[in-house]
Amino acid sequence: MPRRLEEGFDPKLSYLKTFIKVVEEGGFRKAAKKLNLSPVAVMNHVKTLEKFFGVKLFEPREGLTPEGENVYMVVKEVVSRLSLLRGLVPDVGKAGKIKMTVYTTETPMEYLLPCFLLRFKEFNSSVDFQVEVGLLEDVKSSLKERLANVGLIMVPEHLKASLLDEFECLEILKDTLVAVFSPLHKISRMRTVDIQTLAKQPLILDKPGSDNRLFTDEIFSLNLIDPSTLNVKLILRGSSAITTAVSQGFGVGILPEMLTRKWVKAGLVSTRPLECRGVNLILLLIRQKDSWTNVVESLWKFAKGFSEIYGSNPPCLQRFTSV
Q1: Claim: this prediction has a pTM higher than 0.90
Q2: Which pLDDT belongs to residue 109?
Q3: CA–CA gap between residue 141 and residue 249 (Å, rounded)
Q4: Residues 6 or more apart whose Cβ sits within 8 Å of residue 271
Q5: Domains in the chain, start-ordered, CATH in brackets?
Q6: Which of 10, 90, 104, 191 could lock 152 by a disulfide, CB 3.0 to 4.6 Å apart?
């Protein structure tokens, strides 16, 4: 029988976040490392919550109890919404409708921007978004010319430093490039794919100037692969077209892992990690360093909370991801 909730005691928000991290990391020690706490401190946080809720949250070597699973579902939602509330725009009632222009490259538009902005609007219904989509250089120039309030881009991790002189950057999530191929392809027998093996395959690439082409050009350049030696079978427009062609066995693609999840879940393609330099990607919210308004500040705070909550598993991809 569950015990009665402890009277006169309110758990700290940090204790709830600790509990969530223990569940998501699969153990006290892993959670402690992520949180920069000692394992003893993590266990004490959980014990305090067990005392408050009046139930046992974990069983040794078995993980979450049924009661713990129920507590986790509720706590996760509460903490998520509390964190996102940091993005409330102040004095919005006085200003009326507020227009915000977001300039994004193609990759964030495909799988992050819709759920990201919709959740921001849940707390800020008076903010209207105008979304423009273009290339990386388009995003940068629109911010410099004050045609957009913020930009959302995905770039190879090593290119972030080149943006810091002109823009303030907030990292929202990380991704990695993977080899994408038909489940019947011989590469499926490998656990990882090295760049030399990949370079010998018939490749399906995105058009020059696109996000995906930037990623592949950088990866071949960093690993000293001469583009003229590649067997480029097709150049298509966008990740959906590339993945469709790959699923039909026309060649091998190189794409951000997140863009492939729904295709992998449907059994249409397979992916493998790449063994080479330049596979790490980051998704950044960027703005001009002197463009600080209430709505930009609120979106910035919201993005920090969004990143803390969802990490590399944003809501629009969770149905394709094993938890």
Answers
A1: no
A2: 79
A3: 39
A4: 178, 179, 180, 181, 257, 260, 264
A5: 13-86 (1.10.10.10), 89-174+281-320 (3.40.190.10), 175-280 (3.40.190.10)
A6: 104
